[in-house]
Amino acid sequence: MYSTILTSLENNILTITINRPDKLNALNQQVMSDLNAVMDEVYHNPEIRSAIITGAGPKSFVAGADISEFIGSSVEEGKALAKRGQDIFFKIENSAKPVVACVNGFALGGGCELAMSCHFRIASENAKFGQPEVNLGLIPGYGGTQRLTQLIGKGRALELLMSANMIDAATALQYGLVNYVLAQEELLQKAKDILSTINSKAPIAVAACITAANAVFDESKNGYATEVDAFGKCFGTDDMKEGTTAFLEKRKAVFTGK
Ligand code: COA
After folding, report:
1. Strand ranges for the chain from DSSP E
2. C-alpha of residue 24 to centroid of ligand 1, in Å
3. Of all protein residues, whose CA lies closest to atom 12 belonging to ligand 1?
4. What CA–CA distance (Å, rounded) separates 236 from 232?
């Protein structure tokens, strides 16, 4: 079904593996199309409650957009490339179902941007993060200037953006770019453990957490008003009635997603 990604669904968690290890999983247009399509699957398949994005092989998550596709592009084509990439990464960021990046090696350029569009990140000890676009006479185009600044602050972001320097996993942890650093073989299991916990909660409330937190960074939205709206809507759900009743009855809630 997909030519550049592998998928496996287990316990309602879809693991999406970008599968071009000989090119360090660089994002060519086919990978971007496959990512777009698999996110439609995440959105619409009720069997999928959450997702993991990772890279094939032990060396790289994603080493950036495929540089070979940039040669000879015009200004207008460059803008269209960035717009398409941003739209696909917005689809990840705005997914009502949590998406976690398991960064198993290089997360450079578009790879770092992909990881940052996920709801949070877990890294292996060999992970390296960076936005090396200035080496190519470019800047990030898939949201990197924005999300890196949001996640690690302007000073650190501008240092990385302007220098093209890479940071290791320990530094990424210290910067708050990743939540955990683990041995490579523990990476997927940690993400699955966290997502299993999240999947046991009320799905509408989980989705509302994402909507409200995303509103912090969306100038067209008032984050506090978004929170009021989302909080109120939870009162109209079966799961809110079940969760509050179960607490008072001292039993475990059984959520239905309604
Ligand atoms: N686009 C296209 N191809 C890429 C790529 C990218 N972003 N990153 C790696 N590759 C390819 C290499 O060209 C090479 O292909 P080849 O075997 O056909 O020559 C293969 O992946 C392996 O990469 P290589 O450079 O040989 O591995 P390395 O261990 O020596 O170096 C990196 C690893 C990540 C430091 C290096 O590949 C690199 O700098 N990549 C580009 C990173 C970048 O600038 N990304 C931002 C793009 S906007």
Report:
1. 5-10, 13-18, 50-55, 60-62, 99-103, 106-108, 120-124, 128-130, 167-168, 180-182
2. 6
3. 23
4. 7
How far is 30 from 32, CA to CA, in rounded Å?
Answer: 5
The domains located in the chain, with CATH, are 5-198 (3.90.226.10), 201-248 (1.10.12)
Bin 99: left if φ > 0, else alpha if -120 < ψ < 50, else beta.
beta
Residue tagged active-site, from 10, 41, 77, 133: 133
Helix (H) or strand (E) holding 10: strand 5-10
Q: CA-CA distance, 204 to 258, in Å (whole number)?
A: 7
**What pLDDT digit, counting tens, does each position of 172-183 carry?**
999 999 999 999
Q: Please give the distance, rounded to the nearest whole angstrom, from the Cα atom of residue 104 to the centre of ligand 1.
A: 16
Task: Check if 227 is active-site.
Answer: no
pLDDT (tens digit per residue) in 216-233: 999 999 999 999 999 999
Q: pLDDT tens for residues 42-92?
A: 999 999 999 999 999 999 999 999 999 999 999 999 999 999 999 999 999
Q: Is the CB of 23 within 6 Å of ligand 1?
A: yes
Return the structure tokens found at 156.
Answer: 């650190």
Residue nearest to atom 13 of ligand 1 (CA): 23
Copy the structure tokens of residue 2.
């997909």
Please say if 125 is a catalytic residue. no
Q: Is 63 in the pocket of ligand 1 (CB under 6 A)?
A: yes
